[in-house]
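User: My collaborator sent over this chain with a note saying "see what the structure looks like." That's all I know about it. Can you take a look?
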Amino acid sequence: MRSLVMSDVETNSEWAHLLGRAMAGKLKGKVLRPLITDMVTWKVWLEQYPQTTVLKMSATAKDFTRDFYRDRSRFVFGFTIGSKSFALPMEKMSDHPLHAFKLFDESLIATFDRNGTSTHLFDAELDGEVLEFALADDGTMKDRQTGSVWKTTTGQAVSGPMKGKSLRQRVGIMSFRKAWQNFHPESSDVEF
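Assistant: Without extra context I'll predict from the sequence alone. Here is the result:
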């Protein structure tokens, strides 16, 4: 199983990235506040942020390329709702790059960007209304209620009556399936 363990410089505590919790050291048991991040190809990142500079560090792992997902069954996009963990299987997401589903009382939408190989999770409810989306040919999505066009990577409406509004993005992480299951043994796959 592959899973990143980090240590902080100040206390030398060891942190499990799939839990965001210190597993050993002075801060053992403390939990970090999760941040929304993207795992995306360099090409797509550079298209979106052309002024980006890079800190060159020694390589300790293989380069991230589309080959990363050669065997998509090895990967999931993991997330939690309340205290329950779930996984979006990447083999399903790559076949269905827009997936609406409901967990408990929450309506959610997951998107997969084939160009950037990134997955995003959003609340489908906005201003008290659950929006229904359809994928457009250009990689955007359109809601059926207003006809507004939304970016699948940011959840932001770029045209139509909802222009300027954004869907609330949820925290999730791309992970090897085995690693996610090891840290979240009670996790279940989202139905497609």
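A starting point for your reply to your collaborator: The radius of gyration is 18 Å.
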